[in-house]
Specification:
Shape of chain A: globular
Distance between the termini of chain B: 44 Å
Order of helices and strands of chain A: HHHHHHH
Largest sheet of chain A: none
Radius of gyration of chain A: 15 Å
Distance between the termini of chain A: 26 Å
Helix content of chain A: 40-55%
Mean pLDDT of chain B: 92
Structural class of chain A: mainly alpha
Shape of chain B: globular
Strand content of chain A: under 5%
Low-confidence stretches of chain A: 1-32
Largest sheet of chain B: 5 strands, mixed
Strand content of chain B: 25-35%
Oligomer: heterodimer
Mean pLDDT of chain A: 80
């Protein structure tokens, strides 16, 4: 799992609850424990057609999510929901996502382990 | 070779350009349009054997079809979208939603393509989704915002350097301000009138009202046609949302087209559409109708035109109907002659995913459908997890059916032997 950068903690916590915020302040970086990976995998069925259940995009205009930062995914989901970030498909998908589901999905995709096999020029 | 159809600017390049490597797309088109060679490019073939091919063949064992039909792996083609079988049956050109098109050849006519290479690798492309041929061997590829023609492509494709001309220059198919990744997988057909027909999706789920007039005027969310040199462009049909897949009925020359309908209104509405375009200027109801007879919330306050044409076939909601062709071959049983084969790519936003199959629609003698579209080949939707997603159908030289799949990156061949 990715270690969130300093300061990221507050941003995430503000979407959840004061309790989590307090937890965050007290324990630093471990705040993403809010997301349940197993529950996220079940919910990720709805992401499968585009992002792949393995987090590898199935369509050219869609990003890979495998191993993506948990905080980053969560922030993007909230941005789609608020309308700050616009995408015709994601605007529809996020309608059905609770804040908890977003955390679970972020935890799941972030937890997919990936390996770099080839880097051009190296 | 006929050069008359190629733009005069390109022919002019013949006189001025020498042999050189082109730095960008325009340079490449001019160089090749002048029939000069490009610098050598890396031009690998796509491997056709190995673990991936074995896995695909295993998946195909799960596909169910009527008795006597069989399905096999024809070729591995990355990101395979819409297909166009060459008039001589030699090469099948396959588009993608990325930056490449592919040339697929079954040299030994064995029913398996042994040779898959990028088509025209020295010409950079953007979303080259839609290839189509004229009967006299001109290949057209519709990209996101450009149409190129490749004269005698069935001959030239064996070389990385092909003959090429511009039908619609970059940025002139639609205003660049309307470019989007969404609903931009375009298809084309050369009609019985020898004009080039092109489907243009509009980029929104439901477009804002301020776009309405512009889109209607340009045929965005509709079908346009033009002469094969790009002149005399006109809007042929409007009132569509994201039309993909079309073909002319060889009997009465009318045009049939799929249209993909509004998302986010529920799992079971609105209906997907198979439309029957009997004359120029018909309006098929979008954005007032989100699909079938379901009104969109956004346009509830407007009164739709009285002469709207509703779909000939209402398809199951969100199944994503993408490919459409009339079957004219002799291999399949007689009842399939002049029937429509179409594809459902499969839903992305339905609670229980539906689609990922090939459908067949039978027509009566009067040119209307005999009933709803029914599944012809299915089994790629395994409890909501896609093992494959059929995009397009095309008829091969021998009357067998080619099916492209952009999830697997493959083309399948369906044949009939009655056994």
């Amino acid at each position: 799992m990715n270690i969130p950068p300093p300061g990221c903690c507050k941003v995430i916590a503000s979407y959840t609850s004061f309790a989590l915020f307090a937890f965050c302040v007290a324990f630093g970086t471990s705040v993403y424990a809010g997301g349940n990976i197993t529950a996220g995998r079940e919910k990720a069925i709805m992401c499968d057609a585009c992002h792949g259940l393995d987090g590898h995009a199935r369509m050219p205009e869609v990003p890979n999510l495998a191993g993506q930062g948990e905080g980053y995914i969560l922030h993007q989901l909230h941005s789609f929901k608020s309308g700050e970030r616009k995408n015709e498909q994601m605007a529809i998908i996020v309608q059905s996502l609770t804040p908890e589901a977003m955390q679970d999905l972020a935890a799941y995709f972030s937890a997919i382990e990936i390996k770099v096999v080839k880097v051009p020029g190296e | 070779m006929k050069l008359s159809k190629i733009g005069s600017a390109v022919i002019g390049a013949l006189l001025t350009l020498g042999v050189q490597a082109a730095a960008n797309a325009d340079d490449a088109i001019e160089t090749l349009g002048g029939m000069h060679k490009m610098a050598a490019v890396d031009w690998p073939t796509i491997p056709q054997t190995g673990p991936k091919a074995d896995q695909v063949k295993k998946t195909l064992e799960k596909i169910k079809m009527p008795d006597g039909f069989h399905i096999g792996l024809y070729a591995l083609v990355p990101d395979a979208r819409h297909m166009a079988v060459g008039p001589q049956g030699v090469v099948t050109i396959v588009g993608t939603r990325k930056t490449k098109a592919y040339a697929v050849t079954d040299r030994s006519r064995s029913g398996v393509a042994e040779d898959v290479k990028e088509f025209a690798p020295s010409i950079p492309k953007v979303l080259p989704n839609g290839p189509c041929w004229s009967k006299d061997g001109f290949l057209y590829i519709v990209e996101q915002n450009r149409i190129l023609t490749y004269p005698a492509a069935e001959f030239f494709y064996e070389s990385p350097d092909v003959a090429v001309g511009v039908v619609v220059p970059e940025g002139k198919l639609i205003p660049t301000s309307e470019e989007s990744y969404n609903h931009t997988a375009r298809e084309c057909r050369v009609g019985p009138d020898n004009k080039l027909y092109v489907q243009l999706g509009q980029p929104y789920n439901v477009p804002p009202k301020e776009k309405q007039a512009l889109y209607k005027q340009l045929g965005i969310g509709g079908i346009i046609r033009m002469d094969q040199d790009g002149t005399h462009r006109e809007v042929y049909a409007t009132g569509m949302r994201n039309p993909v897949g079309m073909d002319f009925n060889p009997k009465d020359k009318t045009l049939w087209a799929n249209d993909n309908q509004v998302d986010g209104m529920g799992d079971d509405i609105p209906a997907g559409e198979m439309n029957h375009i009997t004359k120029m200027g018909q309006d098929f109801g979008f954005p007032w109708y989100g699909g079938g007879h379901t009104r969109t919330k956004e346009y509830m306050d407007q009164t739709p035109p009285a002469d709207i044409v509703f779909p000939e076939v209402e398809q199951v909601a969100h199944a994503a109907d993408l490919g459409l062709m009339f079957y004219t071959g002799n291999m399949f049983p007689a009842k399939y002659k002049n029937a429509i084969f179409s594809t459902q790519h499969g839903s992305w936003n339905r609670k229980d995913p539906i689609g990922a199959r090939v459908m067949v629609t039978f027509l009566k003698d009067d040119g209307h459908v005999a009933g709803p579209s029914i599944p012809f080949a299915e089994g790629w939707n395994e409890n909501g997890h896609y093992l494959g997603r059929p995009v397009d159908v095309a008829q091969s030289w021998d009357g067998s059916l080619l099916v492209s799949d952009d999830l697997v990156g493959a083309i399948y061949r369906i044949w009939y032997d009655g056994k």
